[in-house]
Amino acid sequence: MTLPRPSPEAQRASGALVARIRDEILARDGWIGFDRFMDMALYTPGLGYYSGGAHKFGAAGDFVTAPELTPLFSQTLAAQVKQILTLSAPHIIEVGAGSGRLAADLLLELEAGACLPESYRILDLSGELQERQQSTLARTAPHLLERVAWIDRLPERFDGLVLANELLDALPVHLAVWGNEENPAQIFERGVSWIDEAFAWRDIPAQGRVFDRARQIAGECVLPVGYLSEISLAAADWTAAWASILGNGALLLIDYGFPRHEFYHPQRGCGTLMCHYRHHAHTEPFFLPGLQDITTHVDFTGVIEAGHDAGLELLGYTTQGAFLLNCGLTDILSRIPADDCERYLPHAHAAQKLISPTEMGELFKVMALGKGISAPLVGFTLGDRSASL
Ligand SMILES: C[S@@+](CC[C@H](N)C(=O)[O-])C[C@H]1O[C@@H](n2cnc3c(N)ncnc32)[C@H](O)[C@@H]1O
Questions:
Q1: Element (H, E) at 106
Q2: At 1, is the pLDDT very low, low, confident or very high (cuts 50, 70, 90)?
């Protein structure tokens, strides 16, 4: 793998994180679950990918998310946000707000439509990103900054909208292996050891919740012997935690992923784990810890199962492409005169990227879960795929 070289300072930070993870492995009898490795690689204060100095988003970073690509995304999303606020309460909590772009563009669009929420709270694990969010908002929507507050835990009760774009894919996952040559029926958990001065994979018999979930999946999907994939207990726990404090309102989740039967498809035998480093995508999570993103696709069936168990109702599930078209993306694009080529063409190109089935339109999904909301949601009017879950 030939990838751009990090600066000496970045290499030193990555080396310090490797030493921290190694020490944790040695302190835990030589093995940690991959969830712990991923958690430390992404969120160790000051050194993890999200909590350290890596640039992360945009052309100068490692990957581009929809709100970073174009303000059209957040402006279009505003139609769905507005409806949910009207049906519940005028409050928003955004979880995992990245650079703050979505918050700024969404608030400006809601202001233009005279439906600003009374409060907009941001919950993000990364102190570094919280600072970035504050400066994005101070730069682009300074007059709205007073409505925005940063919180460090879930409130005790919440009515309104909980919004998360590309959050679930960043939650640490366990790895499971369904059988090997000697023990085709045994389920293993794949974790990380330290051997010959380097991280190494090691499988141990799966136990507890990982075993229970892996066995459930084996009962629902056809998995060849040696099948490797991820199990996201964190996504289920995250959903259940919000469900437990939601009064009247909805969770609106946007992420790449599939229903379970597609996620655990027999041909996807190496899982969905991907790493992003300076716009190169690869599958080596041990490469430069702290300097690259580690991510997995979302098992949306797992999210709705957890939501149902915790009292949430499925309000809609569809592709990002269908959702944005339902919310009026083309009308928003048409605000820019088409004969103003210099302005129009880049936005038209970005809109195409958001909705094209070969780009983000099909792989990315939108799921709404809620309590006390009875009206059909505008974003799911055409092309709802709830039956596929
Ligand atoms: C892939 S980035 C997406 C950022 C942004 N939503 C966007 O679309 O550009 C994931 C974000 O989630 C945050 N995050 C990850 N786990 C979190 C958690 N458990 N609670 C709150 N924020 C979290 C990260 O710090 C980061 O801001």
A1: helix 101-112
A2: low
Tell whether ligand 1 has an atom less than 6 A from the beta carbon of residue 65.
Answer: yes
**pLDDT tens for each residue of 205-258:** 999 999 999 999 999 999 999 999 999 999 999 999 999 999 999 999 999 999
CA of 339 to the centre of ligand 1 (A): 38
Residue closest to 176 by CA, chosen among 130, 209, 143: 209
Position of tokens 């059988």? 179
CA of 49 to the centre of ligand 1 (A): 11
Distance in angstroms (rounded) separating the CA atoms of residues 102 and 66: 9
Q: Write the burial class of residue 98 (CB in 10 Å: 0-12 exposed, 13-18 middle, 19+ buried).
A: buried
DSSP 235-275: HHHHHHHHHHHEEEEEEEEEEEEE-HHHHT-TT-TT-S-EE
| Residue 365 bridge partners (DSSP) | 255, 319
Could you tell which of 167, 254, 294 is best to mutate to test the pocket of ligand 1, judged by most ligand atoms within 8 Å of the CB?
A: 167
E strand or H helix at 103: helix 101-112
* Cα–ligand 1 centroid distance for 204 (angstroms): 30
Mutate to test the pocket of ligand 1, among 35, 39, 40, 50 (most ligand atoms within 8 A of CB): 50
Residue 5, pLDDT score: 85
What's residue 384's pLDDT?
96
Tell me the CA–centroid distance for residue 298 and ligand 1, in Å. 14
Residue 368, ligand 1, Cβ within 6 A = no
User: What's the CA gap between 173 and 57, in Å, rounded?
Assistant: 22
Question: In the predicted model, what is the mean pLDDT of residues 37-46?
Answer: 96
Average pLDDT over residues 136-146: 97
Kindly report whether the global pTM for this prediction surpasses the value 0.85. yes
